[in-house]
Amino acid sequence: MNEHLLGLEYCSKEEIESMLKAGFSFKEVLSRPIPKVPTLRGKTVVNLFFENSTRTRISFELAQKRLSADTVNFSASGSSVSKGESLRDTIRNIEAMKIDMVVVRHQSPGVPYFLTQCTDSIIINAGDGLHEHPTQGLLDIMTLQEKLGTVKDLKVVIVGDILHSRVARSNIYGLQKLGAKVALCGPPTLIPVQAEQWGVEIFYNIEDAIRWGEVLNVLRLQLERQHSGLFPTRREYAHRFGVTLEKLRQVDKEITIMHPGPINRGLELEHDLADSEFSVILDQVTNGVALRMAVLYLKSGVSTTEQAISQKK
């Protein structure tokens, strides 16, 4: 198993399966009256977030607390980074405080790998630019396994802003390694030119994508990353690529709806669809804590899974 978690592109099928299996084990811990184990007691984890985050940051913090780790939160806006301190100096100063693991989110791709060259601490990628978001990819797969039993031969369509999505890339790598069939759907301007090399189907019509797929993983339209007109208007995007109940009802089969959040309701997803029987979005949030507990535990190398979940606080 890799020492760090930098991206699912670098993980073997066996390593992905190991993290998913541990995720289901730790989900049982979360259902206990006292959902806590002392697995990482004495370990110090730094959450090094250079980008704004709600779900990912809270999920990692909660996972760390459930494992009894000591948690230190770092925000670039209130740190010496705002005074000009380099990333290398920031991580080396933090490491001098005797830390064990770093969970990092940064707007630039490659930062998690760069940190592995600067520190002996374990690095976990919580999203780096347009590169990857591996724990989101893993929790998405975990949610599909939980509902459908397996992802082998499952047809998953990733819909929307593929160009700016690190979630899409992690899902593609992880799903394909586990035998799923992956397709992309969106405006041509929001699908990367290299997508044809990823071994995926590509649709430019949402109705065709729905007829092909069994799962729709609908991405947030990342307007803050777009500096040019990649589609005419929000209204036209919603009309042509927004997922609605009416479009789903045109096909006679079960469809599962996913979304990594936050949702632009009425734009990517019809308002009520996110809360419908088709949706597993809240299951994704719940599974995110268990999956991140699993990643933290496995990368720490402290014990076997059975010992970790049987420990009492």
Question: What letter string, H or E per element, gives the SSE order?
Answer: HEHEHEHEHEHEEHEHHEHH
Average pLDDT score: 91
Portion of residues in beta strands equals 5-15%
Number of strands: 9
Gross CATH architecture of the largest domain: 3-Layer(aba) Sandwich
Mind describing the biggest β-sheet?
5 strands, parallel
CATH class of the largest domain: Alpha Beta
Low-confidence stretches: none
> Share of helix among residues?
25-40%
Write up this protein:
By secondary structure, this protein is of the alpha/beta class. The protein folds into 2 domains: 8-132 and 285-310, Aspartate/ornithine carbamoyltransferase (Rossmann fold, 3-Layer(aba) Sandwich); 134-281, 3-Layer(aba) Sandwich (Rossmann fold). The chain has helices at residues 13-30, 55-66, 87-95, 111-116, 134-148, 166-177, 206-212, 234-241, 245-248, 281-300, 305-310; strands at 44-49, 70-75, 101-106, 122-128, 155-159, 181-185, 201-203, 215-218, 256-258. β3 (101-106), α4 and β4 (122-128) form a beta-alpha-beta unit. α1 (13-30) crosses α10 (281-300), α2 (55-66) crosses α10 and α5 packs across α6 (166-177). The model has no long low-confidence stretch (mean pLDDT 91).
